[in-house]
Amino acid sequence: MKDPAKVVNDVLSSLLSVLGEKPAALHEPCFAGNEWSYIKECLDSNFVSSVGNFVNRFENDLAAYTGARYAVAVVNGTAALHVALNLAKVQAQDEVLLPALTFVATANAVSYCGAVPHFVDSEFGTLGIDVPRLRDYLTTITELHDGVCVNKQTGRVIRALLPMHTFGHLGDIDGLLALANDFKLALIEDAAEALGSTYCGRHAGTFGQSGTLSFNGNKTITTGGGGAILTNDPELASKAKHITTTAKLPHAWEYRHDQIAYNYRMPNLNAALGCAQLEQLDGFLASKRALHKAYAQAFEDVSGVELFVEPPGGKSNYWLQALVLQPKWASSRDVILAATNSLGLMTRPVWTLMQDMPHFACCPRMELSGALALSERIINIPSSAGLLREAL
Ligand SMILES: *Cc1c(COP(=O)(O)O)cnc(C)c1O
Predict the structure, then answer these.
(1) Which numbered atom of ligand 1 lies nearest the CA of 216?
(2) Local confidence band at 391 (pLDDT 50, 70, 90 cut-offs)
(3) How far are the Cα atoms of 91, 99, 107, 217 from residue 352, in angstroms, in the given order?
(4) What is the pTM of this model?
């Protein structure tokens, strides 16, 4: 039996062997392209706000990159989720299924619609929704009424299924599509972490009726703050554009709006940054993959922890690299976090599970043993694209 101090030391020395003796952030942006020149173009043209060429160009570039027919750029990933749920007609008192193991934005967006988050379990193979267990659960607790899925326990309609691609890894997409189809749920992907990830060659966020991206400062590419809705449906795309621009009717000078809507459109300044970042995305992905390879070698002989590897069938962006501790070393997690952070190596536990926050404690949920085990055993380690830049 190995002693816990050895696990901590092994993790530390493996990290140091890859990163060297300098501080490393968990994920920081890299501005090595046309950022300055595009931003200057915005300032010189006076188009800094939500009208401007870069917003349209960023949307076109995103659609081309992801293969989605349409991309609609918005102020952040949370707003993108809010809009996507709106487009799926999620209403007050509906329920939306989402993993308990996610960033809080996923659950917040459901709440913005007046709907109730309903938390489901995750599994170790993909870090995503445990589809077989969710299917059993839904079979037990729901019934279809006129083509609508009703939760027999709460009497509420379950309107949508909102999986999240944890750290950029795509889960059981085929299983999720079948589940959405069988239980008549709108499938919306929270692909905030998954720009550049594919499954069977198809880009994250393009499998359901819509998908959402985030370009926050810690994501794979950044616009400062930003997000986007991806969809192949022309009607949904035009609705998304309409409700994110105050539902203003086109007119040369009149201010007429045909519904209550949002001021969610991405400003041109942010989109300028996005255009420059998108040009570098393939390079970022290559260097993140190289970092993964370096970590894989460094951790190969360390027993007690595993570096999480992309699930079969998919190609991940490796947004955040993750170590998964063996069950018997779960109690060493906090010691490892303390030891690494005290050396300036930024490591983090995964998010607090949604039902453990007071404002979501009363939400319905299935049994969450997978999410709980994962939350006790995951450690994210420095993952920036720039970390191995010198090596490339
Ligand atoms: C980053 C993120 C979002 C959106 O975050 P914003 O900061 O609003 O852009 C949503 N869901 C998940 C899982 C995320 O990681």
Answers:
(1) 9
(2) very low
(3) 26, 12, 12, 21
(4) 0.97
